[in-house]
Amino acid sequence: MTHGRANILLLAAGAIWGLGFVAQSSAMSSVGPFMFVAVRFLLAALTVLPFAVREEKNSHEKLTRSDYYGFFFIGVLLFSGAALQQIGIMTTSVTNSGFLTGLYVVMVPFLAVLLFWQWPHPVVWPCAMTALAGIYLLSGGQLDGLAIGDWLTVACAAFWALQIIFVNRIAIKSGRPIMLALVQFVVCGVLGLIIALGTERTEVFSVLAAAPEILFAGIFSSGIAFTLQAVGQRFTTAPQAAIMLSSEALFAALFGALILGERMSIQGAVGCALIFVAMIAVELVPALRSRADVRP
C-alpha cells in the first residue's frame, strides 16, 4: 500500500469518527459511560472477527506471545482514552470536548520524541500547530472555565496520542493490523464490562434505548474506523497519522451542517480551512522534498 492510500484510510477513519460524535454523546442519556464502552467495543470485536480469522489463515507467520502482549497493551491505552472521553463528555461542553480531544495532534510528535527519540519530518511541527489552531476555531474559538470533565478529556487526548504511537510501532512489526484491532476491542469490551457491572446500574431497556447510537459506534466508529487506523498506520508515521485523524473535527462540522442543518460561522470555516491545509501540507511537502532530492 502506498503512503497516499494509507492517508486516505486514515482520512476515512476521521470522517467516520466525525459522523459518530453525536451518537456517542447522545447515548449518555440512556446508558452509563462504562457500559457504553463495553457494548460498543464488544460489538466492534464481532464486526472484525471474520476478517481477523481470514487474515490469520492467509498469514505465513504465526504471532508470538510478545505480539499479543503488545496488542493487549494497546487495548488498555484505547480503553483508557475511550473511558475518559465518555466520562468527560458528561461534565463538559461539546465545544471544550472537541477542542481538548484534538490535543493529541500536538501530543503525538512530542511524545514520540520523548519516548523513542523519534523525530518527525520538520513539516509535522507547523502542521500539527496549524491543525490544532483549526480545531480551536472550529470549536468556537473560546473555552469556558475548565471543569473536571475538561481535565479528563485532556487525559483522554494523552492516551489517544500514546495509542497512535504504539499502533504505528506494533502494527508495522507484527504485520497483522486486523488481529491487533480485534484484540484491542476485546480488551476494551471486557474491561468496560467488568467496571460497569461493579459501578453502574444498567438495565436491558436502557441499552435498548441507546441501541441506534451503540450500533453506529460499535460497527462504524469502532469496528471499521479503528481497523482502518491500524491498517493505514502501517504505511505512514504516527505524527502524520495524527494530523490526518484530526480531520474528525472537520467532518463533524460538515456532517452537522448537512444532516442537522447547523450553520457554520466564518470562524468555523477558517478552522476547517486550517485543518485542510495541514492535512494537505503533511502529505505533499515530504513528497515534493523527496522528488527534489532525487532529481539530478
UniProtKB/TrEMBL annotation:
Domain EamA: 6-139, 148-281
Main location: membrane
GO terms under cellular component: plasma membrane
Keywords, ordered alphabetically: Cell membrane, Membrane, Transmembrane, Transmembrane helix
Topology versus the membrane: Multi-pass membrane protein
Localization in the cell: Cell membrane
InterPro entries found in the cross-reference section: Diverse_Substrate_Transporter (IPR051258), EamA_dom (IPR000620), EmrE-like (IPR037185)
Transmembrane parts of this sequence: 33-53, 68-87, 99-116, 123-139, 151-171, 178-198, 204-228, 240-260, 266-288
PANTHER family per record: EAMA DOMAIN-CONTAINING PROTEIN (PTHR42920:SF5), OS03G0707200 PROTEIN-RELATED (PTHR42920)
Name of protein: EamA family transporter
Lineage, top ranks: Bacteria, Pseudomonadati, Pseudomonadota, Alphaproteobacteria, Hyphomicrobiales
